[in-house]
Amino acid sequence: MSEHTLTDIDNETGHRIELPVKTSTRGPKAADIRRFFARWVISRMIQVFYLRPVAKAN
Description:
This protein is an alpha+beta fold. The protein is built from one helix and three strands, in the order βββα. It has one domain (5-50). It has one helix at residues 34-50, and strands at 5-9, 16-22, 30-31.
């Protein structure tokens, strides 16, 4: 049996991410967003450290 996943698609860029859906002994199933959050953090780090303009020294 394959793993239950949830697919998130960015309509602007077309980027997709598969998120595993976890079951618990109590309560509803839930999407595990750790992979989504990790991708967001990495993309923000790239923007901050590599894509921002470099200030000129006086």
